[in-house]
Amino acid sequence: MAINKNSNAYIIIYTVVMVVIVGALLAFLATSLKDKQDANVLNEQKTSIMKAFGEAEANFDEVVTIGSITDGEFVVVEDAAATFELLGDRKALAAIENNLPIFKLEKDDVVKYVLPIVGKGLWGDIWGYVSLQQTEDNVVITGIVMDHAGETPGLGAEIAAAKVQNMFQSKKLYDETGAFAVRMQKGGAQNEHQVDAISGGTKTCDGVNAMLETSISKYESFLRGAEVEAEADVEGDEVATEECCGDCCCETEEATVVEPTNEVEE
């Protein structure tokens, strides 16, 4: 009996069979290649972190300490896999408030930290990594890497370009009042905290500004620790000076005065 290839039944059966075959093939490939895909994602994450550090040629596993900021303190993380899994889940990363992932690199007596940053651009997610160095009176950006899901080519998508990212280097996070001050400024940078915004990419730049402030502010108690300690040392010195010049010192001096006598020391 000849098969009528023009019948509805034949077309439906043929379509179902092809869908099943192609679906099974794709499922098999996805399963068999999962380890390689995961390895590629992990390598991309490490590469981006090293670029933010400015050490693209260095081996991540040899020079970077993986940690978390827990209750304002740096804690070394033993389960690196969980940290990188969190980095891949931008929604979870944006929601986390404690046990914040952080990466530490020490070189030539200089310590830098890289923080993950996540936010929203004009058309979708934006994300990246920012490298920071603590000083006695501020926190300075030493590098940044940003990427996006679908910002406009030639406009907002320029946040992924090196020429834009390089402008963030050496920018101080906080102004003289202590407020977070780093931002992409429409019309051009006006101080040591700002960088030039992208012409025609205002909404994406606004997203970058919100991303930086929201993501970095979670780490503020840790990042400003060096500044707080320096201020505490200065205040401690001032208090010590006041105490030495106070009444207690004078009383001590008076108490130790020896009245002259006619006795001769033998």
Please summarize what this structure is.
With 266 residues, the protein is of the alpha+beta class. The chain is 44% helix and 21% strand.
Could you explain how this protein is built, in words?
This protein is of the alpha+beta class. The chain has one domain. Helices cover 44% and strands 21% of the residues. It is built from 10 helices and 8 strands. The strands form 2 sheets. The chain has a 6-stranded antiparallel β-sheet with strand order 2-1-3-4-5-6. The chain is elongated. The C terminus is likely disordered.
What is the percent of helical residues? Answer: 40-55%
Strand element count: 8
Average pLDDT over all residues? 87
CA-based shape:
elongated
The residue ranges in which pLDDT falls below 50 over 5 or more consecutive positions are: 227-234, 248-266
End-to-end Cα distance, whole Å, is 141 Å
Multimeric organization: single chain
Bin the strand percentage.
15-25%
Write down the secondary-structure element order.
Answer: HHHEEHHEEEEHEEHHHH
Strand order of the largest sheet: 2-1-3-4-5-6
- Indicate how many domains the architecture comprises: 1
Structure class: alpha+beta
Cα Rg: 30 Å
Q: Helix segment count?
A: 10
The biggest beta sheet is recorded as: 6 strands, antiparallel
Key attributes of the depicted protein:
6-stranded antiparallel β-sheet; 10 helices; 266 residues; 21% strand; two-stranded parallel ribbon; single chain; disordered C terminus; 8 strands; elongated; alpha+beta
